[in-house]
Amino acid sequence: GMADRRAGSTVAAEADAASVMLSCNVKAGSVKDSMCTRVSVNSLSAEGSILVNVVAKKVVAKNCVLYNVVDDSEEGVVLPDGAVRADVYMPGEEKLVIKSTMETDGGKAWKVCVEGNAKSFEDVYKANGAVDIIDAQAAQSAAKDKALAAL
User: Fold this and answer.
1) Which of 134, 56, 38, 39 is nearest to 97 (CA)?
2) Are 69 and 53 in contact (CB under 8 A)?
3) How far apart are CA 127 and CA 28, in angstroms?
4) What separation in angstroms does the CA of 140 have from each of 40, 107, 133, 135, 143?
5) How many other CB atoms sit within 10 Å of the CB of residue 68?
6) Residues 88-98: b if buried by 16+ CB within 10 A, e if exposed
7) Hey, how many other C-beta atoms are within 10 angstroms of the C-beta on 11?
8) pLDDT tens per residue, range 105-142
9) For 12, 49, 109, 148, which has the most beta carbons within 10 A of its beta carbon?
10) Has this prediction a pTM greater than 0.70?
11) Backbone Cα Rg of the chain
12) What is the arithmetic mean of pLDDT over 78-89?
């Protein structure tokens, strides 16, 4: 039922029946034809998008994918239509923001720095090879906790 589509969530945003919001805390906005899991934002405008593990003051996403995104800026995350963003955490290093588009074939663009990224998908894959996943998760959790406290 509808309650199952909002499990573990506090959602003050308008969300249509097609959207699923699990373990979310959204204070305002609108959600249409989207899937959100573990999303904490003050203002969310999502349409046709997938958001997983996202913390920000504001998110605007249409036909987008956001994964492990932590943003503590006042302006939040405002993406162009069809954007893809994933934040990568490697202990002892700055968070790496990886951007792409829904049209980008990651296999064909494996060695290419797309969308202004500092590293190619291959570079990120290689850099993550020796990373301790527990340490990476701790770095992401610390960033997330800091951003949550600022909401």
Assistant:
1) 56
2) yes
3) 38
4) 15, 26, 10, 9, 5
5) 19
6) bbbeeeeebbb
7) 19
8) 999 999 999 999 999 999 999 999 889 999 999 999 99
9) 49
10) yes
11) 16
12) 97
